[in-house]
């Protein structure tokens, strides 16, 4: 066999599990590409699905008359069917296009002398499919321009829905959450005005984070709405990326600033705390660049997996970095409790920061691990549930942060009776071994 079946399996299975979930009208340029498998978009079809495929400017690095062109072509396959194809490659066949487990869309032996073709493939078996190009000829490099459009017909009017089945309700979900965040913005402004004498700079920063989150969700709702109806974002994707970039930077910066106690515990940042911000902000810039490349290029890009790995690595580093200031604040409060004689006050602060530390860890774990697992184990018809889960977790995190760090009238000279002070001192001794 010319092409290793294990190589084919690894190439496609990676793309199936991390490929772009939102289908739209996609224009792709393939230039001198020798990969045996080139995955394009993944899409969840209903029983009334359709694929439109237009390929032009086809160029092969080896003359056609010396090639078996039936070993070149496009096909659709599901994750389950690809496992069966891999088993066949080990014993029965030499090319995925020869498998009875895939749905062949077009093979290049039908080209004859042409350099372009157009085909329409109606999909009646509901499932989640990936459009794949197979090149089973060694040393052959292929160049071509590909226009693909996958959609489902819905309703009696046969409207085209360019969003994958299971994600077609996302515009409404994002719009609903944007309304919630706009309501939270109005409520937070009311709180800041009502308690304006005890408002710190961090509270205005929190307001900016909520506003950016609301605008980000609104743009994402419009982005997905236009894709659903027309197959193109019509510029809303640019606004979405801008607000996503600003939201990401401000959110991570906010977690760092709250963790340091900036403005409400102390009016300055220590050098090590500034270094965390210096690390987190550029990493967020890199993460957002990687996200744009991942979304816009799709899995057919030769560097797509590299950018995916960069995004995951940077995201993990950012999530770990924002925990350090909270740990430092807990350590400082514990040391202060032993020396300044204000055990009750320090115990309250220490408890608050411990709670925040735990909540930040839970938020990071849920949105990075649990949501990813949910997306991969859920049926393609219910992929919207992972989005709802992530947004609900984010909403809970925002509400918790607002409730715990809202403006309050604190009197640093308030009197604490001796019994409360002694009880707090004992509690600090008992919990001195709190592990982070």
Written description of the protein model:
The structure is a single chain. This protein is an alpha+beta fold. The chain contains eleven helices and nine strands. The strands form two sheets. Strands 1, 3, 6, 8 and 9 form a five-stranded antiparallel β-sheet that branches. β8 (142-154) and β9 (159-161) form a beta hairpin. 36% of the residues are buried.
Distance between the termini: 54 Å
Shape: elongated
- Number of helical elements: 11
Radius of gyration: 27 Å
* Helical content band: 40-55%
Structural class, please? Answer: alpha+beta
String of helices and strands: HEEEEHEEEEEHHHHHHHHH
β-strand number: 9
Query: Which runs of at least 5 residues are low in confidence (pLDDT < 50)?
Result: 5-22, 411-421
Strand content: 15-25%
Sheet with the most strands, sense and barrel status: 5 strands, antiparallel
Question: How confident is the prediction overall: mean pLDDT?
Answer: 83
């Amino acid at each position: 066999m010319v092409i290793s079946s294990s190589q084919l399996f690894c190439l496609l299975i990676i793309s199936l599990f991390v490929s772009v979930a939102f289908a739209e009208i996609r224009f792709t340029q393939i230039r001198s590409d020798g990969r045996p498998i080139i995955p394009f978009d993944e899409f969840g079809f209903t029983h009334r699905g359709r694929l439109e495929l237009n390929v032009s400017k086809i160029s092969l690095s080896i003359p056609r008359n010396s090639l078996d062109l039936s070993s070149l072509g496009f096909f659709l396959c599901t994750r389950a069917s690809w496992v069966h194809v891999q088993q066949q490659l080990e014993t029965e066949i030499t090319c995925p296009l020869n498998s009875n487990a895939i749905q062949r869309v077009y093979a290049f032996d039908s080209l004859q002398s042409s350099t372009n073709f157009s085909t329409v493939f109606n999909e009646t078996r509901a499932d989640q499919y990936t459009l794949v190009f197979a090149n089973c000829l060694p040393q052959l490099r292929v160049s071509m321009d590909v226009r693909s459009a996958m959609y489902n017909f819905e309703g009696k009017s046969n409207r085209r829905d360019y969003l994958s089945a299971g994600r077609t309700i996302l515009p409404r979900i994002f719009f609903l959450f944007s309304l919630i965040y706009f309501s939270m913005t109005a409520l937070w402004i009311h709180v800041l005005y009502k308690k304006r004498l005890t408002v710190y700079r961090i509270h205005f920063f929190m307001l900016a984070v909520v506003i950016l989150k609301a605008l980000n969700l609104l743009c994402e709702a419009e982005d997905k709405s236009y894709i659903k109806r027309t197959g193109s974002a019509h510029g809303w994707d640019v606004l979405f990326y801008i607000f996503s970039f600003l939201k990401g930077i401000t959110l991570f910066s906010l977690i760092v600033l709250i963790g340091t106690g900036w403005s409400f515990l102390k009016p300055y940042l220590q050098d090590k705390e500034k270094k965390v911000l210096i690390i987190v902000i550029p990493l967020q810039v890199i993460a957002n660049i990687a996200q744009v490349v991942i979304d816009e290029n799709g899995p057919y890009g030769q560097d797509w997996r590299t950018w995916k790995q960069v995004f995951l690595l940077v995201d993990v580093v950012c999530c770990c970095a924002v925990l350090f200031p909270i740990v430092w604040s807990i350590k400082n409060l514990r040391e202060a409790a032993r020396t300044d004689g204000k055990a009750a006050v320090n115990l309250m602060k220490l408890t608050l920061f411990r709670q925040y530390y735990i909540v930040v860890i839970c938020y990071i774990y849920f949105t990075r691990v649990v949501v990813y697992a949910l997306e991969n184990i859920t049926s393609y018809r219910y992929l919207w549930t992972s989005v709802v889960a992530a947004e609900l977790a984010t909403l809970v995190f925002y509400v918790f942060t607002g409730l715990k760090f809202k403006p309050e009238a604190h009197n640093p000279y308030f009197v604490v009776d001796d019994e409360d002070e002694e009880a707090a001192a004992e509690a600090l001794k008992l919990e001195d071994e709190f592990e982070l």
